[in-house]
Write a structure and sequence with these properties.
The protein is an alpha/beta fold. Strand 6, helix 5 and strand 7 form a beta-alpha-beta unit. Helix 9 runs parallel beside helix 10. It starts with 5 loop residues before the first helix and ends in a 7-residue tail after the last strand. The longest helix is centred in the N-terminal third of the chain and has 19 residues. It has three domains: 180 residues, no CATH class; 182 residues, Rossmann fold (3-Layer(aba) Sandwich), CATH 3.40.50; 68 residues, Helicase, Ruva Protein, domain 3. It has an eight-stranded mixed beta sheet, sandwiched between helices.
């Protein structure tokens, strides 16, 4: 007790013996700046998390949406440490521990400590016979060295203050069972939608908000120019005539999702991918309610672009096999008609089955038809892949990549570069490239037929159409 650092002397804690408030057979005390003798309902729910940590595991992480809520939590727990300790003490007898130490660590500052000891523990001088458990609630990741220093600091604080009330505890520094509850702020942006399904408990739907990984420079020059003219510039200038949605048509792997991300990047917005699994329900009518609820929340965000990938599930209503699908399409028609919603992009591989009412002006105003890339675009894709993967390659080999990737889609060109680099152990040579090319089975006549169908579709679909479908001599 002679060794009490200056830091501990400066701490202005109060110590309160709460043994009379604890269950029979348990004693304890609280050390905190303020000890409130009251009840808060939020502390009750948080105590359940601590008990779960004590019973089931050594580490748990809880995340808050913003720093203000995190500060609120630590302020609440610091003031209501007594109530939290009482809740935990009710279950201490079930633990294989003689005493429990609960610590609240905010940054590097020790905000509060409480100690719970079983009454039958009398031999405090024999550390080997007294098994302890420490629970650390912190907003900072702690290494093994950090924990060791923290336990020593907790020991000093407890010894200094507990001696005032004649209460001594076993050695805290000897504790080898340390449980950590890390409270932090969500690093990723997540939209949460709370719904209550019929005959079920409330459910929280979590929809991630992503930063775009691609930009307009990753698209063919023709698309880039038309997107800037028809979409980006009007939306940036907040023009009343700006389009509200887009349908991107094309075979798999040509870059439909990449195009949506590039548009979001050009608009300085984030991307929300909305999938049917996010809102569909087994309960009759619940799918439509959930979809309306989701868009009611998405409408509050002006910094997002909504992407509905593979929207082939929105089939024409005359082809629907169940009334639930018809109801879902009707909801989408109402949502897309709402001019206050965020810019919405849908993609499809089979546009013929999409309900035509979705792509009329005022809903999905722009239809983009994307085919297999031409020579120059394949060169651009290959060079970007080479740069991204840090691959060594000679200029003549790049020409060879472009030549042998005829009728490849964008994803296949990227895969060709990766496979050739793997074979060449970080270098692409003619031999490794030829080896990689033999792994791909591309039916040129089939893809030529797909390209011709896309040209036909682009010429006949009504409305505003932006087409990138190279002719065979360009491929």
């Amino acid at each position: 007790m002679e060794r009490v650092g200056a830091e501990i002397k400066e701490l202005r804690y109060s110590i309160v013996d709460i043994s009379q408030d604890l269950p029979r057979g348990v004693e304890g005390f609280v050390i905190a700046p303020v000890v409130i003798d009251d009840v808060n309902e939020h502390v009750v729910s948080f105590a359940a998390k601590i008990l779960s940590l004590l019973m089931n595991g050594g580490y748990r992480k809880i995340l808050f949406k913003d720093k203000e809520k995190l500060r609120w939590l630590f302020r609440l727990l610091s003031e209501y440490m007594k109530q939290l300790t009482i809740h935990i003490a009710s279950e201490v007898k079930l633990l294989d521990s003689d005493f429990v130490v609960l610590a609240l660590l905010r940054g590097k500052k020790l905000n509060a400590i409480s100690v719970i000891v079983k009454s039958e523990v009398v031999d405090f001088d024999s550390d080997e016979e007294n098994k302890g458990t420490a629970v650390i609630i912190t907003d900072t990741k702690l290494s093994a060295n950090d924990l060791e220093r923290l336990l020593a600091k907790m020991q000093d604080v407890v010894d200094h203050y507990a001696s005032r009330i004649g209460f001594y505890v076993p050695s805290i520094v000897a504790i080898d069972d340390v449980r950590v509850l890390l409270a932090g702020v969500e690093e990723s942006d997540i939209i949460k939608v709370r719904i209550r399904e019929d005959y079920g408990k409330p459910v929280v739907i979590r929809i991630p908000v992503q930063k775009p990984m691609w930009n307009l420079n990753d698209l063919p020059p023709k698309l880039r120019e038309e997107f800037e003219l028809l979409v980006v510039d009007p939306i940036r200038s907040k023009a009343m005539y700006a389009p509200r949605g887009m349908l991107i048509v094309g075979p798999p792997g040509v870059g439909k999702s990449v195009t949506a991300e590039a548009l979001a990047h050009a608009l300085s917005r984030k991307l929300v991918r909305l999938m049917p699994s996010s809102y569909r329900s087994m309960w009759y009518g619940m799918t439509e309610k959930t979809l309306f609820k989701i868009f009611g929340i998405l409408k509050r965000r002006e910094d997002i672009v909504i992407l509905v990938d593979d929207a082939d599930f929105l089939v024409q209503r005359m082809q629907a096999i169940h009334e639930a699908y018809i109801a879902e399409v009707n909801v989408w028609l109402n949502i897309l008609q709402d001019q206050t919603r965020p810019f919405t992009v849908m993609t499809t591989n089979v546009p013929d089955i999409i309900d035509r009412a979705l792509i009329r002006p005022g809903r999905l105003d722009v239809v983009v038809v994307m085919g297999f890339p031409d020579r120059e675009m394949r060169r651009q894709i290959a060079l970007r892949a080479i740069k991204r993967y840090g691959v060594s390659v000679k200029p003549e080999v790049v020409d060879e990549i472009v030549r042998i990737s005829r009728w490849f889609n964008a994803a296949e060109v990227d895969a060709l570069v990766r496979m050739a680099a793997s074979k060449g152990r970080g270098r692409i040579t003619s031999e490794s490239l030829e080896w990689a090319r033999r792994k791909f089975k591309v039916n040129e006549s089939e893809r030529r037929f797909i390209q011709e169908n896309l040209q036909w579709y682009g010429e006949r679909i009504p409305g505003l159409v932006v087409s990138y479908v190279p002719r065979e001599h360009e491929i």
